[in-house]
Each structure stands twice: as C-alpha cells, then as structure tokens.
Design a protein that fits this description.
6 helices; mainly alpha; about 230 residues
C-alpha cells in the first residue's frame, strides 16, 4: 500500500510539471500577442491622429515649417492653440503613451528581457508627457518629446534581441535612421545635411521611422505569438 501511494503521488507530480510549463508558455504567448496588438494600435492611432489633426488645422500649416507638436500648441511665448486639432493630437499622444507603457509590461512578462521593455516603456512615458504637456509648456514639453525620440529610436535597435529575421534588420535600420537624424540636427543644426527640410521635416525624419517601427513591431509580435 505505501509503495502504491508513492508511485501514484509521483505520477500526479510528474503530470503537473508539463501542464504547468504549458500554462506558463500559453500565458507568455498571450502577453506577447496582446503587447503586439497594443503597439500596432498605437502606431495606427498615431498616424491617423496626426493626419486628422493636420487636415483640420487652419490654412498655413506646413510640414516643413511646423513641428508635429504644433498641432497641440506652438512654443511660448504667444503660443497658438487651434481646436479641434489640439484636442485630437493631445488625446492621441496620451493614448499612444498608455498603450506603449502597458505593452512594455506585457513584453517583459513574455520575454523577460529588460532593455526592450524599458525603452518601450520610456517611449510611452514620453508620449504621455507630450500629450499632457503640449508645446505651450515650453521646456517640459521639449524634455518629454526628446525622451520619446531617444527612447523610441533605442527601442527599435535593442528590440533586435527579441525579433526574428528579416524584420529585425528593418527594426535596427529604422532605429538608426531616427537616432542619426536627431543627432545630426542637434549637433549641426542649420548646417546639417537635412536643414533644407526645415524643422518640421527633420522632426518627421526622427519621429516617423519610430512610428513605422512601432506599427510593424506590433504586427510582428502578433504573428510570432500564434
């Protein structure tokens, strides 16, 4: 009798091991899939929100002269705020920030890799700050915008460790393009090779590669988690 109970206990214990492992694997797969969905939505919402805010902005808005953040409010002094463009832009940035922060948490649960999750979380924090503190908040807005650009570019590069080919190569390329554009503009200013694009044009070379990556990365994660 004791021997029979021991063997039965061993059988139950061994049966639980693979089941628990499969449960954890499914949980992590779902976390990755949900993170991908959130990032994909963040990318789509950001693009469509910016397009809508630009379309509703009064005549005179030019992508070469105006920064993206002008949609929320221009820099002080004498900041200009046009509605409904400002409400749309600010709401979009807040939503994108929340999506990215939640996605960062889920990515860490799924992959247990700190660098990609940390950079995506900081990217989300920057976007959240841009929405809460529009351009009329001056330096506070500028710091959050800079955090968004730097963290977003770095996220695209360090995410290489959790991506598969060939997307991982495009990921690094988009991150490098964004960071290089930012560095050239900050170091060389009007003497840089991209100065002819204007402040708004250069900023879009910094921001749009990151948003393209966020959208593509979201789709990559959803497909990978199947």
């Amino acid at each position: 009798m004791p021997s029979h109970r021991t063997n039965r206990a061993r059988t139950v214990s061994l049966g639980r091991g693979p089941s628990t492992g499969r449960g954890r694997s499914v949980g992590r797969s779902r976390a990755v899939s949900f993170a991908g969905a959130l990032l994909f939505c963040a990318g789509i919402v950001s693009f469509m929100g910016i397009i809508t805010a630009e379309a509703l902005y009064p005549a005179g808005y030019r992508t070469g002269q105006n920064e993206i953040s002008d949609l929320g409010a221009t820099r002080p002094p004498n900041s200009i705020i046009h509605q409904p463009s400002a409400h749309i832009f600010d709401s979009v940035m807040i939503a994108v920030g929340i999506f990215a922060i939640v996605a960062a948490y889920l990515l860490y649960r799924g992959f247990r890799r700190k660098p990609p999750a940390l950079m995506i979380g900081l990217f989300g924090l920057g976007g959240l700050g841009v929405g809460i503190f529009p351009g009329n908040h001056g330096n506070v807005h500028a710091l959050f915008a800079l955090l968004t650009f730097i963290a977003g570019g770095l996220a695209a590069v360090v995410a290489y460790t959790i991506e598969t080919a060939p997307f991982r190569y495009f990921s690094v390329l988009l991150g490098v393009v964004s960071l290089a554009s930012l560095i050239l503009y900050m170091v060389l200013g009007s003497a840089g090779p991209m100065a002819g694009l204007g402040d708004g044009g250069v900023e879009r070379w910094v921001a749009y590669p990151v948003l393209l990556w966020v959208t593509g990365f979201g789709g990559h994660l959803m497909a990978r988690a199947r």
